[in-house]
From TrEMBL:
Disordered, as annotated region: 262-282
Keyword Manganese set for record: no
Protein name according to UniProt: Enoyl-CoA hydratase/isomerase
Family to which this protein belongs: Belongs to the enoyl-CoA hydratase/isomerase family.
Pathway(s) served: Lipid metabolism; fatty acid beta-oxidation
Length: 282
């Protein structure tokens, strides 16, 4: 499938999604909000991909929301237009939220490799990823406050779980930049590398290491970590034991043990392909 705002490539079990509007600093237009979740879901549904890396072409990772999406305000005297605008805004924003939820919901880990500016909606994007590697020149800013907006497509529900609340409030109220070193010191970035190329290489190395593990076990870890983040300890313990009661298979355990002893790739069962239809074999 071809995309207007992305380039998607695969190498074995690893997929790479590159934000590819460098002339517009990878600003997130209407095509982007539709294409990113479609790409992620297609890769996840294949059953063959075990990790996804997201990077970007050009000077910056992303300038965030393309402000051209706001359109022309309705005539204040047109009551129908004003009421419909509010309802349309809510509907469109919910769809945009799903764009980044697709990263969190997919079965495989998603790894961000960012450089330069990660602005506005870019913070929402990387907050929904599993791991984040940054170049030394990278910075992020919750930029919405600078244009009279409240960030609404995922920043606060996720960033508050990745950074101390006081720091999130500071970023949100001021729109200041958080540089790569500060992001690493506060635990947002897994590692800071010297260049854009080094950050991408590190992300791909991590994707390769993850792809060498049992896909089902990695899927389980992702589900359990996200669930534990959002629930109390008792509920999380109950969920993980219920998960393993159905998903733990001795064949996968033995494949992992054999791989560890021999140093050879594990003979793991792939995740099942998915589609939107109810399938047989329930």
């Amino acid at each position: 499938m071809s995309y207007k705002t992305l380039t998607v490539t695969t190498d074995g079990h690893i997929a790479r999604i590159t934000l590819d509007r460098p002339d517009r600093l990878n600003a997130m237009n209407a095509d982007f909000w539709n294409e990113l979740p479609a790409a992620v879901r297609a890769l996840d549904a294949s059953g063959d991909i075990r990790a996804i890396v997201i990077d970007a072409n050009g000077k910056h990772f992303t300038a965030g929301l393309d402000l051209g999406m706001f359109g022309t305000p309705p005539d204040p005297a047109d009551v129908t237009a004003r009421v419909q605008k509010a309802a349309r805004f809510r509907h469109n924003t919910a769809l945009m939220q799903q764009t980044f939820s697709a990263l969190e919901d997919c079965r495989v880990p998603v790894i961000a490799a960012l450089h330069g500016g990660c602005i506005g909606g870019g913070v929402d994007l990387i907050s929904a990823c599993d791991l984040r590697y940054a170049s030394r020149d990278a910075y992020l800013t919750v930029y919405e406050i600078n244009v009279g907006l409240t960030a609404d497509v995922g920043t606060f529900p996720r960033l508050c779980k990745l950074l101390p609340e006081g720091i999130v409030r500071e970023l949100a109220y001021t729109g200041r930049r958080m540089g790569a070193e500060e992001g690493e010191r506060r635990g947002l970035f897994n590692e800071v590398l010297d260049s854009k190329e080094a950050a991408l290489e590190r992300a791909l190395e991590m994707a390769k290491e993850i792809a060498g593990k049992s896909p089902l076990a990695v899927h389980g870890c992702k589900r359990m970590i996200t669930y534990a983040r959002d629930h109390n300890t008792a509920d999380s313990l109950d969920y993980v034991v219920t998960w393993n009661a159905g998903m733990l298979h001795s064949e996968e355990v033995m494949a992992a043990v054999t791989a560890g002893k021999t140093g050879q790739p594990g003979d793991y069962v792939p995740l099942p392909p998915l589609n939107d239809d109810v399938q047989g074999g329930v």
